[in-house]
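Journal club prep — side note

Before the paper discussion, L.F. wants everyone to see what a predicted structure for a comparable chain looks like in token form. Sequence:
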Amino acid sequence: MNIQPYLFFDGRCDEAIAFYRQALGAEVVMLMRYGEGPEGSSQCPDGTSPPADKVMHACLQIGASQMMLSDGFCAGKPEFKGFSLSLSAVDDAEARRLFDALAEGGQVQQPLIATFFSSSFGMVADRFGVAWMVLVPSQIAS
């Protein structure tokens, strides 16, 4: 079993993809625009159709994980509430690089610091409002 986040960017998906490619080294696995679907397949439940150039479905590979993205209904008001994406770095230098990249244009909620459970831990909402927790996992002795 595998859980993958699916985020709706309400019309800013192309911008989000470009940002995550630059900030996290994400690779686009697949991307389909509303205009590429079969006739009538891009209609929303309310009967409207998003613009043909907007992203119906995309998949990004970030390290060993995949994240799904879409423009959704293209209402222009993405809301990301009640969750954070946790991003594990291999060391403190990588944690700093990832944290700083995600913070560009965003809002730091907890500066990147050493804690009792991690040599680096911080929380940031990126420029789209997606909450991230960046950390270096502790090496627990057995």
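L.F.'s comment for the group: The chain has a mean pLDDT of 91. Keep this in mind when we get to the figures.
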